[in-house]
């Protein structure tokens, strides 16, 4: 299915706005609406899927027209509250069309963080009383038209309808990628950090390519990755996991390696950490202005700097670095120093084509990591 045909069909329903958080299953669709199709519809990329539902609600209140909200199926967890307590017909009755990438589809190999959500994606729609249809690469234009007719009938009743999109549904596209002006390679930045750690340091890394790069660099530099907790799912929660470890084990130094997309998703954590200071906490944000792990689409706030936010949240020290030398100096200046420290590293887009994935299960990573406490 061509992305432009799908967007055109949605426009034909009277939908004028697309709101969402990028997903690798929807990569071709996301690339289209961010490049060739950027003038087709109004397009917004909020910080998380719950915020997307809030934005879609406001669009409907302001225009009387429903918006389409796209997301990875993991985002269903973020929309439950605004969907059930605002949009549901028993509350305000806000119509909207959900476009959901189906990661972890049963019978299709995927990463461990997607397995359970993949198994319950359709069931969650049923529990939330959201009628749905599933599309794939074999869905014809006639079938899609019929699905959208069903969706429109449901939305005309001030309800929500979901289209669950299987892997490989959209035709591959050339180009459409995003790049930035920064020159520091992200994996090299991670290697710089790991080289400067000591045996008493614990690492918590955010979901996506950052954890994959932490895994490989720990093995290459340290010979193992037992001091690294890889937060393979739960985007935006790595810093609170790191905080929980820091306040539980004050004999350890905790380093959180975060990403800008994850930071945006639950930025309130920075305020909490700044207010409830752990003793030895280094918070590093690798900022490339993009959701790179799910296709490279820019965030809705590309260009924002997190250092001023950390400063206002009362971190003890805050610095922005542009290259590995500055990163090494910044890290060396705060390691072992009591307090909470924020380092924002501006990094380029891109990763190795042969970047691997953890060989152990998530549970095995947990067990090996916790051995450091005994």
Question: Notable features of this structure?
Answer:
374 residues, alpha/beta, Rossmann fold, 2 domains, six-stranded parallel sheet
Describe this structure in words.
By secondary structure, the protein is α/β, with parallel strands linked by helices. The chain has 14 helices and 14 strands. It has 2 domains: 3-165, 3-Layer(aba) Sandwich (Rossmann fold), CATH 3.40.50; 186-373, Thiamin diphosphate (ThDP)-binding fold, Pyr/PP domains (Rossmann fold), CATH 3.40.50.970. 40% of the residues lie in helices and 18% in strands. The strands form 3 sheets. Strands 2-1-3-4-6-5 form a 6-stranded parallel beta sheet, with helices on both faces. Helix 7 (186-195) packs across helix 8. The termini are far apart. The mean pLDDT is 93.
């Amino acid at each position: 299915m061509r992305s432009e045909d799908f967007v055109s069909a949605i426009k034909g329903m009277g939908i004028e706005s697309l709101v969402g958080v990028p997903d690798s299953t929807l990569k071709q669709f996301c690339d289209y609406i961010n490049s060739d199709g950027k003038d087709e519809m109004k397009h917004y990329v909020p910080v998380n899927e719950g915020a997307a539902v809030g934005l879609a609600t406001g669009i409907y209140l302001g225009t009387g027209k429903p918006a389409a909200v796209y997301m990875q199926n993991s985002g269903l967890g973020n929309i439950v509250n605004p969907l059930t307590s605002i949009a549901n017909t028993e509350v305000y009755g806000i119509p909207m069309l959900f476009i959901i990438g189906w990661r972890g589809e049963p019978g299709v190999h995927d990463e461990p963080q997607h397995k359970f959500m993949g198994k319950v994606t359709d069931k969650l729609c049923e529990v939330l009383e959201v009628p749905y249809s599933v599309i794939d690469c074999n869905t014809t234009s006639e079938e899609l038209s019929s699905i959208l007719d069903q969706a429109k009938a449901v939305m005309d009743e001030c309800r929500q309808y979901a289209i669950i999109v299987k892997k490989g549904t959209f035709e591959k596209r050339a180009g459409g990628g995003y790049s930035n002006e920064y020159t520091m390679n992200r994996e090299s930045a991670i290697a710089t950090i790991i080289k400067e750690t000591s045996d008493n340091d614990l690492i918590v890394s955010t979901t996506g390519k950052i954890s994959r790069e932490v895994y490989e660099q720990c093995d290459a530099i340290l010979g193992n990755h037992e001091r690294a907790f890889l937060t393979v799912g739960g985007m935006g929660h790595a810093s609170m996991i790191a905080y929980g470890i820091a306040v539980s084990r004050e004999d350890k130094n905790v380093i959180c390696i975060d990403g800008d997309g994850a930071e945006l998703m639950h930025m309130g954590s920075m305020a909490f950490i700044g207010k409830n200071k752990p003793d030895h906490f280094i918070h590093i944000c690798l900022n490339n202005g993009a959701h790179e792990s799910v296709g490279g689409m820019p965030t809705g706030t590309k260009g924002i700097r997190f250092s001023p936010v950390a400063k206002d949240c009362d971190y003890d020290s805050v610095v922005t670095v542009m290259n590995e030398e500055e990163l090494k100096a910044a890290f060396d200046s705060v390691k072992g120093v009591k307090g909470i420290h924020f380092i924002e590293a501006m990094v380029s887009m891109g990763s190795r084509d042969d970047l691997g994935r953890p060989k152990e299960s998530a549970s095995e990573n947990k067990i090996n990591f916790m051995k450091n406490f005994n």
